[in-house]
Amino acid sequence: MASEEPAVAHWLFGDQLGPHFIDPARGGPRRDVPLLMIEARGVFRRRRFHRAKAHLILSAMRHRAAELGDRVRYVKADSYREGLEAVGDGPVTVHHPTSHAALGFVRSLPSVRVLPARGFLVTHDAFTSWAAARGTKQLRQEDFYRWVRQAHDLLMEGDRPAGGRWNLDHDNRQPPPRDVTALGVPAPYRPRESAIDEEVRADLDRWSRDGDVRFVGEDAPRAFPATRREALAALHRFADHRLATFGAYEDAILAKDATMSHSLLSSSLNLGLLDPAECVELAETRWRSGDVPLNSAEGFVRQIAGWREFVWHVYWHFGDEYRDRNVLRHHRALPDWFTELSPEGTDANCLSHALDQVRGAGWTHHIPRLMILGSFALQRGWEPRAVTDWFHRSFVDGYDWVMVPNVVGMSQYADGGRMTTKPYTSGGAYIDRMSDYCGPCRYKPSVRVGEDACPFTSGYWNLLHRHRERFEHNARMVQAVRGLDRLRDLDELLAQEAARED
């Protein structure tokens, strides 16, 4: 049998930048195969991305090209198709891309051969087998997480979870300490910009001036790693100085301490600069050496080996049509102040702070995303696909595979419970308990009607009423729905919400 025609180049997408994407021992191309990188400006022209996100992606790509030197051909083009013309009609290999659109495109090209995905702990085939064995349309992260822990021997003691419990969430939901404005832990790693960053910023400025590309948000000095070396420094600083306090306060919020003890590694993982295996293994090493408590190590491992892996596979398992799920039939448009990241557009202190953080950094941690930004969108009945697009464009770590399951499935409950057991939303009491936002706010979390009514509290009850028939059949929602019958001012609340302008 004739040998397969060798590839003339291996194509690296802009989120495949770590060494594990070109390691022959891990399914990458041979070391003598040239590499191709395509910087497609049309990607930024089609959608209005956060300026800091565009900067980070281009900086990371150009830094990687500089590291690879003569082995890589770096093509600046309007589209991927145009960029591929630089290598002619010869065969090209590429690792499985991270979006349905990109995968459909590369599979449509007869000259491109798609290699297995990299950058995740679980293969597509392994997940498919696990899901098939479940025998149900509903997939649950907790079941998947336990399976991954066992399969990869993560935080295990024999066949049992370390400490005797799989889930330490009960220990990891503490409110912030009282009477403090910051958690008091060492600051996260911050990179130093290079000449490449200056070049990127100049290009983005020119594109904006020419009206070729429009951005949203601010491009402050780059706050997230753009190279493998920076990402490793960020990982080890987190493990050495911040992981120990991560667990207990991972769901807490302080207005003047946006990062708390969070790792800020999501963008590095999603650019491919870090491998998830090295992250969870380091956390386990720190726990076994006695440097960090088990609840912190488990909380971090859960985020990566549990939730990140689950979201990746749900994205592919449910298919491209999943993004259009909208069982609650929410169709309202996002208001301009929200899409423009304008904190001045709302008097709600928590929402204003969250938008300000996104505008300035293109990042907030998971609780402002889920329980403030996402919860508000759900309560207001905004169209889930538009909310998904907003999160994708506005966050430096936002990619299609990240945001479709996180927003459609979790944040907006638009799939009706295929990946979560209930809608993730709350009244103002939760925000008051888990943050210091409510004290100086003009609204009162306990008030649901009138000038002082918290928009989250009134919005919560309005949402339950609007979808009562559906939620009263959900075991985890039935008690909340029954609470509607105890509201003497329900009619007044509903009239108030009907007249509210977002």
Automatic annotation (TrEMBL):
Transmembrane segments: none annotated. It comes from the Bacteria. PANTHER family: SLR1343 PROTEIN. This is Deoxyribodipyrimidine photo-lyase. The lineage of its organism: Bacteria, Bacillati, Actinomycetota, Actinomycetes, Kitasatosporales.
